[in-house]
Amino acid sequence: MRPRRPTVLAAALALLVGSFALVSCGGDDDPEAEETTTTTTETTTETTTTDTATPEPTPAGPTVVGVTVVKGAPRGGIVRATVDRGERVALVVTSDVADEIHLHGYDLSRDVAAGGTARIVFVARLPGRFEVELEERGAQIAELTVRP
């Protein structure tokens, strides 16, 4: 029964060599080995929502009431302007004489130099009719009506 021993030994050796071959197939340390790169592409979907509501109006700038004073009097006569209560108003006076611009009723005033411009910006909170004058000269240059 001796002849079986070399067969068993050969089978064991073959099994050992096969196992070693299988274990060493797991990786390759060769720097020239082919690298596998996996690229993941992400798809983004952008959704645009349109608001169908009416947009809030952009606040308008102030209503400008312009007066040009020539030789101490308003060019073209007294400037008459009407605005709504709550409205922003810019009273802009360009003058060739130095004086104080006075908005009666609101008791707002600004000095204007000869050849200069004075600007009075305010919210028309008081309804009524208001005189604008060159205070030192006592000359009316505008009339502002504020509707309730």
Describe the structure.
The protein has 148 residues and is mostly beta strands. It is 14% helix and 39% strand. The chain is built from 1 helix and 9 strands, in the order H-E-E-E-E-E-E-E-E-E. The protein has a 5-stranded mixed sheet with strand order 3-9-8-5-6, with no helix packed on it. Strands 2-1-4-7 form a 4-stranded mixed sheet, with no helix packed on it. Strand 1 (63-70) and strand 2 (73-74) form a beta hairpin.
- Tell me about the largest β-sheet: 5 strands, mixed
Q: What coarse outline follows from CA principal-axis ratios?
A: globular
Share in helix: 10-25%
Supply the helix-strand structural class: mainly beta
Number of helices: 1
Please write the string of helix (H) and strand (E) elements: HEEEEEEEEE
Radius of gyration over C-alpha positions, nearest whole angstrom: 47 Å
Taking the alpha carbons of the first and last residues, their distance comes to 128 Å
Strand order of the largest sheet: 3-9-8-5-6
Residues in β-strands, percent? 35-45%
Task: Please give the number of β-strands.
Answer: 9
Give the mean pLDDT: 78
Low-confidence stretches are: 19-50
